[in-house]
Design brief:
Shape: globular
Protein name: CGNR zinc finger domain-containing protein
Largest sheet: 2 strands, antiparallel
Number of helices: 6
CATH class: Mainly Alpha
Strand order of the largest sheet: 1-2
Structural class: mainly alpha
Order of helices and strands: HEEHHHEEHEEH
Low-confidence stretches: none
Helix content: 40-55%
Oligomer: single chain
Mean pLDDT: 90
CATH topology: Jann2411-like fold
Number of domains: 1
Organism: Yinghuangia aomiensis
């Protein structure tokens, strides 16, 4: 797996909470198991203690995205370095599914939350250092505050998904149409 792909772990973890909508999809061990399944990790060792641990990491990673998106790269990097220090990465060379040898970031001895946090932090660090902190974003479509990594060629991504982009564009169109009809 390419190391930058591990940033998806951070994005998926942070996006389990939608503060603008008041929703939280990380409340139970079953929620943790769904999060793990979404990134293709086994959920065999999920413990009750993983829930609050991942929620705490989620808050820290959200602040990395928020600080980066709001032009505070030093704060974003400081928070991310704290996550990296607390959850060190344990790389391992592996080969599976007929693929050539490659690196996975994992620690089979660490707990689920610790292993997930280490991988998410490292993936986000790879993206931040290769693309720049300005490529970590918060969705511009209210009330969505989901995060994303902008890997677009022209650095123009503003929304977390096509759904949010479409919703925002339709809202602008309707507002423009309403303003014209009021004139």
């Amino acid at each position: 797996m390419e190391l930058s792909a591990y940033a998806d772990y951070a994005v998926r973890l942070v996006n389990t909470e939608a503060p603008g909508r008041g929703t939280d999809e990380l409340r139970t061990t079953a929620d943790v198991a769904r999060l793990l399944a979404a990134v293709g990790r086994p959920a065999a060792r999920v413990a009750e203690s993983d829930v609050p641990r991942l929620r705490a990491v989620r808050a820290r990673l959200r602040s990395v995205f928020a600080d980066a998106a709001e032009g505070r790269p030093e704060e974003a990097v400081a928070t991310l370095n704290g996550v990296l220090a607390e959850f060190p990465v344990h790389p391992r060379v592996t080969g599976h599914d007929g693929r050539p040898w490659h690196i996975h970031l994992a620690d089979d001895q660490a707990g689920t939350a610790e292993s997930y946090a280490a991988v998410a932090g490292m993936g986000l660090a790879v993206q931040l250092t290769s693309l720049g902190p300005e490529r970590l974003g918060l969705c511009d479509a209210p009330p969505c505050r989901n995060v994303f990594v902008d890997a677009s060629a022209n650095r123009s991504r503003r929304y977390c998904s096509e759904r949010c982009a479409t919703r925002a564009n339709v809202a602008v169109y309707r507002a423009r149409r309403k303003a014209r009809s009021a004139d």
